[in-house]
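Milestone M4 deliverable, item 7.
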Amino acid sequence: MASMPVVGLAPGSPPRPADLVVRNARIYTGDALRPFATALAATAGVIDAVGADADVADLIGPETVVVDALGRRAVPGLNDSHNHVVRGGLHYTLELRWDGVRSLRHALAMLREQAARTPDGQWVRVAGGWSVESFAEHRMPTPAELNEAAPDTPVIVTHLYQAAILNRAALRAAGITRKVAAPPGGQIVRGHDGEPTGMLIAAPAALLLYSTIAKAPVLDPDGQRESTRQFLRELNRFGLTSLIDAAGGFQDYPGGYAAVTDLHEAGELTVRIAYHLFPQTLGGEVEDLRRWTGMVRPEQGDGWLRFNGAGENLTWAAADFENFAQPRPELPAYEGEFEKAVRLLMENGWGFRLHATYDETIRRDLAVFEKLAAEGLFPNGNRWLFDHAETISPESLDRVAALGGAIGVQHRLAYQGETFRDRYGTEAAAAAPPLGAMRERGLTVAAGTDATRVSTFNPWVALYWLVSGRNVSGVPLRSPANRVDRETALGMYTAAGASLTGEGGIKGMLRPGYYADLAVLSEDYFTVPEGEIPGIEALLTVAGGRIVYAAGQFEGLAAPAPAVVPEWSPIAHFGGYQASPGQPGSQRPGVQQARSLGQAAAESAQYRTWRADRGLAAGLVALDDPCFG
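Output delivered:
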């Protein structure tokens, strides 16, 4: 690998030369003892020195890769504390990603183009990374629009945990007919003739949506491995070097983890993964957990792939899906099996994370934890946290703190904050989630995306949400007390995530003895105008001292990206996250770009006029179909 030319630096003969030196950078270390530097050196994947350029000059040998950062901002590698990369990677190259697309008009054009190149027997699938709040038109596509765009190719488009839209070809391929009944918690919308229209609604659970998308063709093991490799590289594009996989439905162990395990064994992971295990068998969750406790132990693995505990569900009955288009679900009694699951974990030294959207659910969970704590069994030295916690109360936060818990927050409300506000009110939206109250209690609060089926995997969109309190279309929702400054937000995306995996002493900052994980950014995160934070990308990403992604001035310093397969893949043609014109990455070969913001605003204005002419509400709404009235 060739170094960038560095004037005035000649290699010497140090006794232990560095493998990598990054100099002439504006490094934010995240280390309170030395927050800023201009250079660092790393050997065998670990940082040797952090300081001024002169401090690392003596570590440069004949084989040292020296990178001149050209005065750009560098930060610790980002750590998404809640991602579904293990499952998402299996399908990534089969998905048409609308992440970053600004208008439905452009999204449908992408879909039409992709349908034309998709071979017989395959589907076009859009699964997450967008919402009505990210489109200028502020609405979902209709079944008629999908039928027009793709008359013969099956198409399914999922919208958050709320709905899925299918064309006629997908209804046929999925076997959804007038005789098929919807499962509990789901609705198949039917026309006056009794035939399915193509709209599936989560009311409120998402099982119907994801059991339907699971009927689409899957990749073979080689394809799943290559798809996962491409997804990890896309995460590297945004400076991610670590994540915590929160597991999920249709993700069995160990079979569902084969792709990441194979990449790890080949030394080809470019993102560090700490994974969780999620019981799959409804009614048999405790047995799933009991079987797994005999197979794997917490922290088993290494710095690239390690086991971190159970969750984000422990029992299906305790899951309060956050479909904010529907009323809060009233969960039946679940405490009996839930207590058995938690007791089993504590007795076997397993930590866990727990999906909990509403305070009503959190209070019930805490009562179980406190019962076990009275017996001396909780937390029993194990790490645990609540995920999401949009409506957690101050009283519940006090109880979390007393039990030694942590919180994981994700930018789900960047994609459905207006829907939440319309149901629960402006005051509730201003404190969802209550970041100020969490921080006042000294809780560890780690940030993530919950990608890929709700929010985008782009961490800078989440960082913008943390800092600004605005959703993806720029609408202010959270109060100043529940926003954080940029340094705090970055800490939530680095050091806090490391603490959730027990790695706070080895990653999350740039300090000697820590992993050499860092990103050199396209723009200075600390000074760029707030509204431009979502446009930041990494121009250079280093994981374990190895350059895993390079673009712009640094292009050529990373190994060439493998070709995307299959060749008709939406990712091969459009790429992943769709950068807007003028943003980093917007001129990358093969990437189709979203419309300009001016056009999106014009389309939005046209839509408002259309509604006003018909005597409809002046404000934009999520759905026009009377089925949703």
